[in-house]
């Protein structure tokens, strides 16, 4: 799984997502994160088809939406997503939210898709430790990924530690806090030191914390700069300074109440 991907939430399924995915692939991204609820899987599929690179070079994630939760409904939703994307298989299929009373049956369907070879890996999103513990009681197949809100204001240390201990890769959604963390003075000072911009510092911090990151941008220059992360390294002290900005502050919903 590539450490860096393009998130495409809020992009329309036409020109916007097609151009962004094309620009990202040109800039070297090999990982695209979409979801049924983003309603742009068709556009992502068209862009992938037009990109002219081998399917095996790309890592494509989509997610089953809450309304489709349940065993049979998830299998149907998957087939719809797969067709829209125009792919034979998905690299990663995620349970989008831990909807109470429904996520176990949904995960059971994901396990079936995995066993049948339609998805290379399965995982979850927005799962707290207690949801992961519940899954562990019911299934042999560990989710390979837990995609959660993660940025300098929400570092989720106990969850991160739990995931590490159980071989679950943490993946950051809203890694830039939807742009709201980019004028934070500690981050700006570090950016100045390296001649980088604040987004690059935050994304580099993700990587050094071993968190997969999927920043969204539909502007070509930002898509390019958000991937320009591999020619510098933060010191351990700088990583700790950014870790210390945590305030357990969410920009999205809390999985326990959504
Ligand atoms: P991000 O934290 O990635 O921030 C995106 C915002 O930041 C956009 O407004 C973008 O604007 C702006 N931006 C991007 N790059 C820069 C930059 N270099 N400098 C300044 N501003 C920048 O937010 P998202 O909520 O989109 O999260 C990323 C992805 O995570 C989503 O697209 C989606 O794939 C996934 N996600 C998953 C969820 C889940 O429940 N599993 C929930 C939410 C998101 P512009 O486009 O104009 O550049």
Folded structure, characterized:
The mean pLDDT is 98. The protein has one domain (6-243): NADP-dependent oxidoreductase domain (TIM Barrel). The radius of gyration is 18 Å and the shape is globular. It has helices spanning 15-26, 41-51, 71-85, 103-115, 129-138, 157-165, 185-194, 198-208, 220-226, 236-243, and strands at 6-7, 31-33, 59-64, 92-95, 122-125, 145-149, 169-173, 212-213. The protein is α/β, with parallel strands linked by helices. It is built from ten helices and eight strands. Residues 7-9, 33, 96, 125-126, 147, 173-179, 182, 199, 214-219, 222, 225-226, 252 line the site of NADPH dihydro-nicotinamide-adenine-dinucleotide phosphate (NDP).
Features:
eight-stranded parallel β-sheet; 12% strand; 41% helix; binds NADPH dihydro-nicotinamide-adenine-dinucleotide phosphate; TIM Barrel; 258 residues; alpha/beta
**What's the overall average pLDDT, rounded?**
98
Question: What is the global morphology?
Answer: globular
Gyration radius, in Å: 18 Å
Query: Quaternary status of these chains?
Result: single chain
Q: What is the number of helical segments per DSSP (H or I, 4+ residues)?
A: 10
Total number of distinct structural domains: 1
Beta-strand content estimate:
5-15%
Task: Compute the separation of the termini in Å.
Answer: 28 Å
Biggest sheet strand line-up: 1-2-3-4-5-6-7-8
CATH architecture: Alpha-Beta Barrel
* Class from secondary-structure proportions: alpha/beta
């Amino acid at each position: 799984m590539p450490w860096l991907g393009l998130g495409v939430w809020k992009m329309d399924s036409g020109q916007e997502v097609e151009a962004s995915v094309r620009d990202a692939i040109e800039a070297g991204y090999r990982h695209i994160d979409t979801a049924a609820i983003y309603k742009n899987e068709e556009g992502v599929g068209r862009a992938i088809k037009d990109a002219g690179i081998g399917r095996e070079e790309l890592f494509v994630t989509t997610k089953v939406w809450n309304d489709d939760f349940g065993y049979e409904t998830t299998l149907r939703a998957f087939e719809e997503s797969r067709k829209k994307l125009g792919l034979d298989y998905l690299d990663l299929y995620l349970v989008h939210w831990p909807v109470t009373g429904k996520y176990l049956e949904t995960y059971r369907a994901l396990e079936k898709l995995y066993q049948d070879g339609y998805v290379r890996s399965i995982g979850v999103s927005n799962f707290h430790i207690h949801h992961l513990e519940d899954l562990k009681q019911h299934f042999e197949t560990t989710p390979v990924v837990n995609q959660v809100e993660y940025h300098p204001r929400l570092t989720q240390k106990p969850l991160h530690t739990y995931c590490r201990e159980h071989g679950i890769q943490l993946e950051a959604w809203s890694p830039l806090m939807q742009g709201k963390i980019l004028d934070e003075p500690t981050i700006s000072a570090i950016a100045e030191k390296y001649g980088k911009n604040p987004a690059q510092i935050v994304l580099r911090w993700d990587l050094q914390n071993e968190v997969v990151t999927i920043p969204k941008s539909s502007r070509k220059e930002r898509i390019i700069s958000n991937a320009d992360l591999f020619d510098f390294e933060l010191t351990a002290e700088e990583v700790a300074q950014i870790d210390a900005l945590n305030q357990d502050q969410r920009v999205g919903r809390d999985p326990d109440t959504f």
